[in-house]
Amino acid sequence: MQPELKSIDVFEATDSPSMLNIGCGRTYHPGWLNLDLRSTNPDVVEHDITRGIPCPSGTITAVYHSHVLEHLKPEQGVELLKECYRVLQPGGILRVVVPDLERIAYLYLNIHEQAWKGETQAQKDYDWIKLELLDQMVRESSGGRMGRYMAAADIQDSEFVRSRVGDEFWLCRSADSENGPKPKGRNRINRFSYNLREKLVRGWARFLLGDSAVSAIDEGLFRSRGEIHRWMYDRFSLRELCTNIGFETFEVMSATTSKIENFSEFELDSVGETVRKPDSLFIECHKTALPVSTNRRAS
User: For position 294, what pLDDT does the model report?
Assistant: First the structure.
């Protein structure tokens, strides 16, 4: 990552918000500076976070990112958290939301044990919890087996699945495949150009190496687009990572609790009592409030 990015005018163009939402997707608030790789809304700034955070150092009071860290390679995740530390003011708050590996592993082992003993509901839930553990790391196409499972007409354990994934369940169940707005203007032109180049590459690969090469290219392109999980975190590994960077007061929170002032009003993690991503680990930590004094008493 580049510590000082040239696109700092992005920060200035948004009336200098003091709170930053990274990788916001469909969940954002106009009171924050919202960044995402693709933007179709004026309240969202299009930016690739692997190039750094486009904010001056020490200017942000709170940084938030939900289900972003696991989509980065571990070393990229470290760099992102370092960037979060850089842009935060002394005493600023970092709030991170990720899939909770500890909870998923616990549920998998518990459900597996109950299913082995013949418990009927556990046998229904087993397939889902195994998918939740593995699918987003190994899938080869968008939505993966999890998407197909949730969309199936004969789903057997919808209550359990919904309790795990929240509103994503209804997105997959919807008959409307247009889950998000289409890119417009320059974004649409760029997408058309990219798709044309992909088509040419596939054509040459099929000509030179056959259909298996085209399949390998398609899988590689899909896995590079950010949908898959490249790493997983639990409260221990995340605490070690954050404290090694320099963050303090690491705390496990809930979707509805935060040290960020009026956080629930922004409806980023919950809407009322409804949690957007129930399968998550919510943590907060602070940047050191005061620099360590280097003053020495004159002798």
Answer: 38
